[in-house]
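Holo prediction. Input below; ligand is 5CA.
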Amino acid sequence: MTTSSLPARSQQVARALAAAGVRGDVRELADSTRTAAEAAAALGCDIGAIANSLIFVSDGEPVLVLTSGRHRVDTKALAERWGRGELRRATPEQVREATGQVIGGVAPLGHPSPLPTVVDSALSDYPQIWAAAGTPRTVFPTTAAELRRITNATELPVTT
Ligand code: 5CA
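Structure of the complex:
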């Protein structure tokens, strides 16, 4: 699939990946990748190899937590480790404002401005992981180390 046939929001993500100097092979699937479970089923991979892009509000600003699909974030433990105030789940409107993308398709990058970001250290357990690329049917393959680099993230455990 050529980049030009992708949805506009995914072309934006593909451009951000290219600007970060990575291949970022964005692809649109026939099946939904709206949730980690759906993405894992569509891709035939372990659910833990799906990187969810979760937006929280902390200290009055949106932040991004790239979480293995096998984990739920322990917000209290993570806030302490990250040295931030309470992490509250963003509303759909806050997600759209912070990312320019909709829930189910939020990508790790390609946002109006970069967000303070954590990468779940569990994502390093997988040689290849998949992240959303701006819509609920687009994804790209990456690695934990690459995600950390292109989002300028801190790597932390997100569970207790
Ligand atoms: N495309 C997949 C990964 S490839 C994906 O986007 N997964 S996700 O987990 O990052 O996106 C779904 C997430 O959206 C849910 O885990 C949840 O954290 C968030 N979400 C779902 N509904 C709401 C809501 N009403 N308000 C805020 N966040 C929500």
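The two ends are 41 Å apart (CA to CA). That is the main takeaway for now.
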